[in-house]
């Protein structure tokens, strides 16, 4: 049931980390919109804990703007996490790194929801199921389903699961590094993400401190890591051939930006299809109708500009 006004809500740190933080100009624009138009979207909560709308909640309380609170039913934390990931993946302004991370987290959450759907878990196993093999089969089915939703293969979903787990491990010791990776500022390969997650915590913190906010410092990550390891551990630097799992990154990848855009576009298409199917367009306000029309026309202009640029560059 929705409530209008002001209400003290809880903020769960894990839920909040799944939501892309707004850039400064985006946050300011949201402040302006809320001040001029009021809070039009309800803040979604589960047991009085915010699931969606953290920024609106903060701004509305700061500016004394009434807001609607809508309680949503979930079976538990894993279902909440899966919902947040799916909701965020429908947004068009997330980086490719964040997209991979969210797909991985959504997979792990939905796998747990599926496993516990009949009231069974690791402490109370289902006697009708035969353990590990059944879990693996269920995981593959979940990966295949999510792969179809996000236009990737089931194998890629499983890879993203390892990617997200590695980023969570990095975040425990170097959260500022994780933020740079998810924002897209650091272009680090999958293999190097895994390698970073397996580093000694002190070594990882020192690496993050030393290279700060300079993404170019990671352009030759294997050499940086070898040098750093020698400094911290006071050991001889081993030959590069002894570290086959850590690959040197190219200083410049001409396909990187185009590849990222190509992989992001399907999520835009999915959002448009979902809105077209779920929204009652005949009931939306004139302002919302005009805003959507202008956004779609702007997008169409950008698409035509990009197509022309591709033709000129071919």
SSE topology string: EHHEEHEHHHHHHHHHH
Shape from CA axes? globular
Measured distance between first and last alpha carbons:
55 Å
- Unreliable stretches, pLDDT < 50, 5 or more residues? 215-252
The average pLDDT is: 80
Quaternary structure: single chain
Estimated structural class: mainly alpha
Can you walk through the features of this model?
The chain is mainly α and 314 residues long. Helices cover 61% and strands 5% of the residues. It is built from 13 helices and four strands. The chain has a four-stranded mixed β-sheet. A hairpin with a 2-residue loop joins strand 2 (43-46) and strand 3 (49-52). Helix 5 crosses helix 7, helix 6 crosses helix 7 (154-173) and helix 7 (154-173) runs antiparallel to helix 8 (175-183). The longest helix is centred in the last third of the chain and has 28 residues, at 286-313. It starts with a strand and ends with a helix. The model is unreliable at 215-252 (pLDDT under 50).
Key attributes of the depicted protein:
5% strand, 4 strands, single chain
Give a brief outline of the structure.
With 314 residues, the protein is mainly α.
Helix-strand blueprint:
Elements: E1 2-5, H1 13-17, H2 24-37, E2 43-46, E3 49-52, H3 54-63, E4 67-71, H4 77-89, H5 96-115, H6 132-150, H7 154-173, H8 175-183, H9 190-197, H10 201-211, H11 221-233, H12 256-278, H13 286-313
Parallel strand pairs: 2-4
Antiparallel strand pairs: 1-4, 2-3
Helix pairs in contact: 2-3, 4-5, 5-6, 5-7, 6-7, 7-8, 7-9
């Amino acid at each position: 049931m929705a409530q209008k006004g002001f209400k003290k809500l809880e903020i769960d740190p894990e839920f909040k980390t799944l939501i892309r933080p707004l850039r400064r100009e985006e946050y300011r624009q949201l402040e302006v919109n809320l001040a001029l138009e009021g809070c039009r979207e309800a803040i979604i909560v589960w047991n009085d804990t915010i699931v969606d709308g953290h920024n609106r909640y903060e701004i509305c309380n700061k500016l004394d703007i009434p807001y609607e609170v809508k309680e949503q039913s979930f079976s538990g934390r894993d279902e909440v996490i899966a919902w947040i990931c799916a909701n965020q993946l429908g947004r068009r302004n997330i980086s490719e790194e964040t997209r991979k991370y969210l797909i991985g987290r959504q997979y792990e959450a939905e796998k747990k929801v599926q496993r516990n759907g009949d009231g069974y878990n690791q402490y109370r196993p289902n006697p009708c199921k035969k353990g590990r093999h059944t879990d693996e089969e269920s995981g593959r089915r979940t990966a295949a389903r999510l792969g179809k939703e996000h236009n990737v293969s089931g194998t890629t979903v499983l890879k993203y699961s390892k990617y997200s787990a590695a980023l969570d491990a990095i975040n425990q010791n170097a959260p500022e590094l994780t933020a740079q990776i998810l924002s897209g500022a650091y272009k680090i390969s999958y293999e190097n993400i895994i390698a970073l997650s397996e580093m000694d915590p002190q070594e990882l913190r020192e690496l993050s401190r030393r290279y700060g906010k300079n993404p170019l410092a990671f352009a030759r990550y294997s050499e940086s890591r070898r040098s750093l390891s020698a400094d911290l551990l006071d050991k001889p630097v081993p030959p590069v051939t002894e570290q086959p799992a850590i690959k040197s990154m190219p200083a410049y990848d001409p396909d990187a930006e185009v590849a990222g855009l190509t992989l992001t576009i399907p999520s835009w298409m999915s959002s448009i299809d979902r809105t077209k199917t779920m929204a009652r367009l005949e009931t939306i306000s004139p302002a919302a109708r005009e805003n959507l029309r202008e956004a779609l026309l702007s997008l169409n202009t950008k698409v035509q500009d990009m197509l022309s640029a591709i033709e000129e560059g071919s």
